[in-house]
Structures are given as C-alpha cells and as structure tokens.
Amino acid sequence: MSKTSMDVQRFGMATMLVLGFFGTLAYMLWADWPKEQVSLMVGALIGSFVRAPQWYLDSSPGSARKTELLAQAGPIPPPIVEEIK
Questions:
Q1: How does DSSP classify residue 62?
Q2: Which stretch of 10-14, 36-40, 53-57, 65-69 has the lowest confidence by average pLDDT?
Q3: For residue 14, with 0-12 CB atoms within 10 Å meaning exposed, 13-18 middle and 19 or more buried, which class applies?
C-alpha cells in the first residue's frame, strides 16, 4: 500500500471519528438525555482525541521504521518438521 493511500485512509478514519462523536453528542444534547450519560460521552470523546492524533501521526518513529523493514524483508520459509517415530 502506498504512502498516499495510507494517508487518505487515516484522514478518512480520523474524520469519521470526529464527525461521529460530535454528531452523537449533538443528538444527545438535542434529545435531552440525562446529564450523566452526556458526561460519559464527553469523557469518551476526550479519550479518543488523545489517541487519535497518535494513531494518525504514527505512534513512534521506531514503529514506522519497523513497518518499512518488514515491507523490505523476504518471505519467511516454513519450518522443517520431522515426523516422530
């Protein structure tokens, strides 16, 4: 998969996350849900916004390097299995 298509997919997923949470939150406020449930939704939204940039921008340079090395590596040969008599 090319770098450009990965960027498009990550942007799409991040966009769906943001729109989905804000859409759900707006519906909960509009439908006059109990404040406790709205507070839980806001907490989940904050937690997701902490993780989303890390996932979108890669969690670490080492992870990106690992992915690059795995893409360059050849296939792993199957193990040699001897029959036990």
A1: H
A2: 53-57
A3: middle
Residue 23 corresponds to which amino acid?
G
Within 8 A by CB and 6+ apart from 22, the residues are 45
Specify the residue for token string 């299995």.
81
pLDDT value, residue 65: 80
Where along the chain do its domains lie? 16-59
Q: Residue 48: CB partners within 8 Å, gap ≥ 6?
A: 17, 21
52 in Cβ contact with 14 (< 8 Å):
yes
CA distance 23 to 17: 10
Q: Which two tokens stand for residue 64?
A: 């990106």
Q: Residue 56, Cβ neighbours under 10 Å: how many? A: 14
